[in-house]
Amino acid sequence: MPVHVVCTAVLRQEYCLLSCRLQAGVQDSFLTFEVYKDEITMQLVDKACKVLGVPADIVLREFGEYFFEFCKRSGYDHMLRTLGGNLYEFIENLDALHSYLSLSYQEMNAPSFRVEKNEDGSMHLHYYSDRRGLCHIVPGIIGAAALDFFNIEISMKIVNQTEEEERTGKKEHIVFLVTQTPLFPCKERKEFSSSSQCLVDSEKQIENQLSKEDLEKVKNANGDRGNSVCPVKKSHWKTLRGIITLGRGKLLRGFDPVYPKSLWIDTKTFCNGLPFHMVFDKELKVKQAGTRREMMPESWKERPMLELRGQMMWMESLQCMLYLCSPLLRTLHELEERQMHIADIAPHDVTRDLILLNQQRLAEMELSNQLERKKEELRILSKHLEEEKKKTEALLYAMLPQHVANQLKEGKRVEAGEFKECTILFSDVVTFTNICAQCEPIQIVLMLNSMYLRFDRLTTVHDVYKVETIGDAYMVVGGVPVPVPTHAERVANFALGMIMAAKGVQNPVSGNPIQIRVGIHTGPVLAGVVGEKMPRYCLFGDTVNIASRMESHGVPSKIHLSSSAYQCLKYKNFEITERGEIEVKGKGKMHTYFLIRNKSATENEIMGRPMKDLDSGNESVQSFPEGKTETIPSSHQPATQTQQKKDQTPTIAMKYVDGPTDAQNSLKRRNQMKVGDSTGKTCDSKSDGSLHGNQHADDGPRPPNQGRVKPAAEEPQNRNVRSNFCTLV
């Protein structure tokens, strides 16, 4: 198998590197093996040699052929074909190509080439490069170009290798001996052998039409051209073919030029037309130069050095070298640094056009870079805007239900919705008025903030909606704005969590844990948004009044239930005691109950804390020992670190069964799990309110349970509500 076929997989990695650099805008010119680091390149070559088991020069040569094809595919094909009509001219103009490309890519570190003709038709190719060890790429690239562009095969052999001291450091100088062998196409060979008689007749006809003098001149011209390309003598038929194609310009360079007998130009005009030319002899003594001063002014020594570029021509008759050059300037900035002007450059010199075109290109590149920077800035701003938008939406969704907030953002009117059944909870702090009278305002704020942070966390655990806080009063609802069948269980567990959480908040007056009253009622409500400025999602109906009465007629550290709330919870694994009939302001006598505990859930489940291995889950709410309360700092003390640590505790949502699928899965789990109650007896947790589901029903509210005791119809009585809202963050 050929080596280049085996090398394909290894060289593909290098091709990917080059492709990435091209896409980044740092293009490689022809014969410029630009990679990120030479060390990486040599490591890649060493690994390829070990994998393939071949010397490094073969791998580099094959890569040179591959790199030539890559350059053609990258858009350099047309440019390379126009460098010369034969291999000698092609190599001779490579430095000019690199010089042109360096105007656009100033960081390009290209090699340099110099070629010499030999009498036998061979050439000596001089290769100069700062990159050591990569000279074997040159035979691969030059050989591929010769075969593709000129249909010849070459062989290159290193005849000399040295290092030369340069102004920029040491350069590797490699001399190759290049021999050429033209290829005779198979198609031409067949045509020539099959129609030899026809070719002879054509040859005779052409010879009769042309004079002997013209024919001899064309033969000599073509012979000279053939010797410059290869040592093989051209056939007579090749000469005739060249004459036939004269009209297409293929033998124009074969005719001898005609020179004037004398130059009709004076010395001043010649020097002004070529201001940067130079003539020197074999001893490098300058015989003639363009417009110049005898001595360089002292002030000019501070200017940057002016570099020249051009071509050298040997004048045999004068035994001198003519250097036709022009300033090596790329931009207007370099021109200004040397205190020069466009007028200082010869009118016919293309350097003028190159400077202006390059300046235009640099301006376009700068504009493109500015657009890229602005694009990146816009991307960052868009990212920050999206983050701020999320924060704003999170704040908005904390104040209003998400679907209501979205309707308000779209400028739509939010219609009031009727919920046939939901559960409402009210709570307040016992003796809050006395506490306010005996404490500083900042202590009240800190106490309420500490308590409300705990309560807000519980709303996430049990997925209930916080309606509002009015002073020390805290109001939540279950089943609104998203109806769920387990609204009563959620609010009941939330109330149990409130009693537990309140034990961790200290009364700033007595130093003991604060006490709260909790009241719960179940019934229908009407919910909607009220007002345009600071809109609030409010609940309306007699259910709100009764829930407020349950709280105001409650007992400290107790959860007071109405009869309708009791009907929703009595078969849901809650321990409930009967309070009896009480006189309720504005409602008359009502039969009420106290919620004691959840018989199938642990404290950690209710509080949304991570489960512990030693959780028994059998203790009632009231049986939990008094934990350490949080000390409320004075007006000059910051918040304690204990609260910060508590806020970092992950919140685990409690699971509820709200759908048929959840109920089936829960039933399977209940068949495998028994829960012990506080007396040591085991009870099967097979009620409809078992806490193992995690889906919420999105359909409408279900009708009231059958057999539920409804309160007697009474005249509604508005509750005295303060209008000042205290939002504590």
From TrEMBL:
Annotated stretches, region: Disordered: 609-729
InterPro entries to which the protein is assigned, alphabetical: A/G_cyclase (IPR001054), A/G_cyclase_CS (IPR018297), H-NOX_domain_sf (IPR038158), Heme_NO-bd (IPR011644), HNOB_dom_associated (IPR011645), HNOB_dom_associated_sf (IPR042463), NO_sig/Golgi_transp_ligand-bd (IPR024096), Nucleotide_cyclase (IPR029787)
Originating species: Cyanoderma ruficeps
Nucleotide-binding recorded as keyword: yes
Principal subcellular localisation of the protein: cytoplasm
Keyword GTP-binding carried by entry: yes
Protein name: guanylate cyclase
UniProt lineage: Eukaryota, Metazoa, Chordata, Craniata, Vertebrata
Highest taxon, organism lineage: Eukaryota
